[in-house]
Design goal:
The protein is mostly helical. Helix 1 runs antiparallel to helix 2. The chain starts with a helix and ends with a helix.
């Protein structure tokens, strides 16, 4: 439990410290400062989960005998990840509901604080990272504790309503415009990296670790993966031939080249669309410049026309003035 509390404390107190450090670094471009803080926060959260997995493996790896203190080490690993989910939800409630609400009420009652401090802004990016962090917990824990997915459903429902309350009651709208067209690619990339990092320990567990000796469906196996060749050997001949062909170089190599060609085509398409988008932006900027030029020219013509009209009107009045 101490490791879980330590990880939650890091994820709670270090992100605000990263924002303070970024301000002292005095980046020339605010966008770079924002991205640096985002990457640091992401590394912190993923590093915390990774350290928990390493800590869990160091506790359970030697325990592969029936006389071990933890004969069902998969259950132990699932409990640790489940503890992270529960503690994360409790910390979120304490921070977003209790702490932010108290800060808002104190600020509302103190005119001194109103004049010298700003209301907290709702940071979209940091909240998206919290959702990705929750997703990483699910990906890491579904093998060791399958019902953690059900718990995460309630976790996300609770997170939605807690964030909704915080958005409408305790925080102000963000002053920085959230560019979804640019940020979506970044968040999707981070989510893909999270998926790969989450699957690494599960793959190691399936292929490299001996199952628990007293519990689990693979307790008599060398590792969970060893059951797959047994299933293939017991399958009908047609199935064995199909699976053998899929696993042969004659299928894998062409499939690899097809995948590479598809990825290259996708990259070329993306670059083409980016060029078109840049061209459209240039045309829009030119059109705006032309509109400003025409507007200024029309204003000058109006002034000239008004002067001519006034001079003609005065010339008509001059004989009357002389009379």
């Amino acid at each position: 439990m101490a490791a879980t509390l330590t990880i939650s404390a890091y994820c709670l107190f270090l992100p605000p410290l990263f924002e303070l450090i970024a301000k002292f670094e005095k980046w020339r471009v605010p966008q770079v400062e924002y991205q640096i803080t985002l990457i640091r926060t992401y590394i912190l959260k993923m590093g915390s989960v990774t350290s928990l997995i390493i800590y869990t493996f160091t506790k359970v790896k030697p325990c592969q005998e029936a006389t071990c203190a933890r004969p069902c080490w998969e259950t132990f690993a699932g409990q640790k990840i489940y503890q992270v989910m529960v503690v994360t939800f409790i910390v979120m409630i304490i921070k977003d509901l209790i702490y932010d609400t108290l800060v808002r009420k104190v600020r509302e009652k103190s005119q001194y604080l109103k004049d010298r401090t700003n209301q907290f802004e709702f940071e979209i990016a940091s909240n998206v990272l919290e959702v990705q962090y929750a997703q990483a917990i699910v990906w890491l824990g579904f093998y060791y504790a399958p019902l953690i997915s059900v718990g995460m459903v309630f976790f996300l429902f609770g997170m939605f309503y807690v964030k909704k309350f915080t958005l409408f009651r305790n925080t102000a709208p963000p002053t920085k415009i959230f560019r979804s067209d640019r940020r979506n690619f970044v968040f999707q990339t981070l989510l893909l990296v999270t998926l790969v990092l989450s699957l690494l320990p599960i793959g190691y567990t399936i292929t490299g670790l001996q199952p628990s000796p007293l519990c689990g469906p693979f307790r008599d196996k060398k590792n969970p993966y060893s059951i797959i060749p047994e299933i293939i050997d017991d399958s009908p001949p047609v199935t064995r031939e199909i699976l053998g062909f899929i696993g042969s170089p004659g299928f894998i190599v062409p499939a690899f080249f097809v995948l590479v060609i598809f990825i290259i085509r996708l990259i070329v398409t993306i670059k083409t669309l980016q060029k078109r988008l840049k061209l459209h932006k240039t045309v829009i900027v030119q059109d705006e410049g032309n509109q400003q030029f025409l507007k200024a020219k029309m204003q000058r013509m109006d002034k000239t026309f008004n002067k001519i009209r006034n001079s003609d009107h005065m010339s008509e009045l001059n004989p009357l003035i002389r009379v």
